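Course assignment 3, question 2. Fill in each field.
Student: A.L.
Task: Predict the tertiary structure for the chain below.
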Amino acid sequence: MSVGPASAQSTGIGFSFMPKHVLQGDPARIAVTVRPAGVSCSLKVSYFGGTTQTGLAPTVAAGGRAQWSWTVPTNIQAGLAKATVKCARAGAVTRPLVVIGRLIAPKIIVKQTGFSTRPQPFAGTRLSYGLMLHNESTTQDAKSVTVQTNFVMADGFLLGTDSQHLDWIAAGSDYALGNTVSFPGLAPIVRLETVISVGAFAKASLTFPTLANIHLVPQIFDPNWLGSVEGELQNTDPLLILRNAQCTAVVFDAAGNILGGGSGYAFQTLPPGARQALQLGNGFDVIPYNKASSVTVSMTPSWQQPGT
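Answer field:
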């Protein structure tokens, strides 16, 4: 039953505040006037797709007024919703409510960290670290990502900080970030502390070449240490030319623990269907070769349209 304002009749419900639209993640409010006063009223909000808003408790229309406030969930479907108010002895009334979708910035989480250290022959220590990052958004690429890694000692103080910039992390994907830093003395590091900021986000559109035959190679002059990560890079895109690719890698032991990481570049220009040998050699010689069991490589490719 749909009725007019409560003031125009002896019984009924009228909306005194009803927004035309609400935004995902924002607060919302609905208020009604009710005759007779003092009756129990309830609100039901049904979103597009069938989800119902929780936490809307019944209330008494004291003085002939009732209202409800809530926060619109970010995970409900945008579109036409319905708000229905029912009050004892006053009937029920339903009004449409449009829910507008909000772009949610990608959240980058750190799934796993690890590091190895190696004293230098004369003075100082080198530390190789690896981070497995994950873009939780399945629809948006993270753009211009800055990753700050702090090296924390047992007393909670920092011995150093390293900062790395990534052009992209693809929607719903992992990114293996590895690097090596040096300290002038001992490096009694017990854990890593990571801060991540995303400069922007965009609709998922990244294209990647294909890696093949990726394997670990010991150092030539001292095979006790890992020397490089090698394999093949293949341009499997049917149209685009691969200009180059920045690569980083994270190395794991047999139990899946991160030992560290490193980086390298692929500089060859590859037309569709072409491939090149890949050798990443920066920073891996801190990792004991007998402990290294597997590796994950991530890339930031640069593409070119044919004829440009």
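Instructor remarks: The chain has a mean pLDDT of 92. The first strand starts at residue 12 and ends at 17.
Grade: pending
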